[in-house]
Amino acid sequence: xxxxxxxxxxxxxxxxxxxxxxxxxxxxxxxxxxxxxxxxxxxxxxxxxxxxxxxxxxxxxxxxxxxxxxxxxxxxxxxxxxxxxxxxxxxxxxxxxxxxxxxxxxxxxxxxxxxxxxxxxxxxxxxxxxxxxxxxxxxxxxxxxxxxxxxxxxxxxxxxxxxxxxxxxxxxxxxxxxxxxxxxxxxxxxxxxxxxxxxxxxxxxxxxxxxxxxxxxxxxxxxxxxxxxxxxxxxxxxxxxxxxxxxxxxxxxxxxxxxxxxxxxxxxxxxxxxxxxxxxxxxxxxxxxxxxxxxxxxxxxxxxxxxxxxxxxxxxxxxxxxxxxxxxxxxxxxxxxxxxxxxxxxxxxxxxxxxxxxxxxxx
Length: 363
Ligand SMILES: CCCCCC/C=C/C(=O)SCCNC(=O)CCNC(=O)[C@H](O)C(C)(C)COP(=O)(O)OP(=O)(O)OC[C@H]1O[C@@H](n2cnc3c(N)ncnc32)[C@H](O)[C@@H]1OP(=O)(O)O
What we know:
By secondary structure, the chain is an alpha/beta fold. The protein has 2 domains: 9-89, Acyl-CoA Binding Protein, CATH 1.20.80; 110-361, Alpha-Beta Complex (2-enoyl-CoA Hydratase, Chain A, domain 1), CATH 3.90.226. Helices cover 50% and strands 10% of the residues. The protein is built from 14 helices and 9 strands. Strands 1-2-3-4-6-9 form a 6-stranded mixed β-sheet, sandwiched between helices. Strands 5-7-8 form a 3-stranded mixed β-sheet. Strand 1 and strand 2 (118-123) form a beta hairpin. Helix 5 (134-149) runs parallel beside helix 6 and helix 6 (182-201) packs antiparallel against helix 13 (326-344). The termini are far apart. Residues 1-6 and 94-101 have low confidence and may be disordered. It binds ligand LQSD347O. Ligand LQSD347O is lined by residues 128-129, 131, 137, 167-173, 189, 192-193, 216-218, 240, 244, 246, 249, 356, 360. One of its GO terms (molecular function) is delta(3)-delta(2)-enoyl-CoA isomerase activity.
């Protein structure tokens, strides 16, 4: 059976595929066979084709390599594929490998560093105010999954490069789509958003938001699923969903009313009020507002403190709190994604997105 859902390493797998084509030296035949077999296993699952005839030497060698992988999982095959290609690429350009805790990773739109038990995820498209592309959603999910499994990491932090924290969903995700492909785009978007928000609901270690500047849309809503949110006094929090013909996501339809009460939540989610950092703090979305000039240093002190706490104790504590509402959060996520799938197909939404890009083009 082919893959129907994303694997744990999808973004890195795609990047490894591209990297394979850029290797300066061709790998030897045995390595090539191994790469071939892992690719087949990762994309199709265990070998299920008949053994080629005795005189089809190449076909038989490929078949043997693939069937030799037995029934290792598609995720495991992806991982081994990525490791081999990154290993080959690393041998060619050692300068690209690990530097001061920086992962020799294939992330393209985020930057992940691990140092002193802290995994930092930097949203890294400053020229586009860190708007989140489809690739970036996948990369964030992958980075969270990796941080949750890595025993050397006790806390994860998300922050933005440049003057913005994040401008939310990249509106280009919905552009240039043939009208006949819109339903599929909406279905795929729903599935991706569901996986993205699930990664936040179920992240088992402390997750800290370092909101270094304005935050918009989905980057604001998921903050309600973080364990602490530090914001610079220059940050703002804006969820202009109805202006875009869209609707609330990131579990905000459930979390925001709990945090701030219905009328204040409506002010943000229905009537698009942009909050200052201090207002967001008063409403419980932000833990603490810090002066912009010393923001990085102040956040670092707080993160380092959390990083050195007994990790199991912190995880158990987080689980106790999250378990009180985990099911409700998953339900809210499902429901929000379903409603959004319909919104993305609505004329209201299509018009609003066109209008954003038309205005830009006129400037
Ligand atoms: C799988 C799909 C899941 C979807 C989940 C649902 C998510 C919903 C949301 O997140 S809704 C919120 C969407 N975001 C927005 O509506 C923000 C749109 N952007 C803006 O309003 C402004 O760009 C700004 C206020 C963020 C910043 O304004 P300004 O300081 O004037 O800068 P520019 O507008 O010139 O921006 C610089 C550059 O970045 C591009 N850009 C910024 N934000 C986005 C974006 N969200 N999507 C796409 N592109 C964005 C902007 O076009 C400029 O590009 P250019 O230099 O012109 O090429």
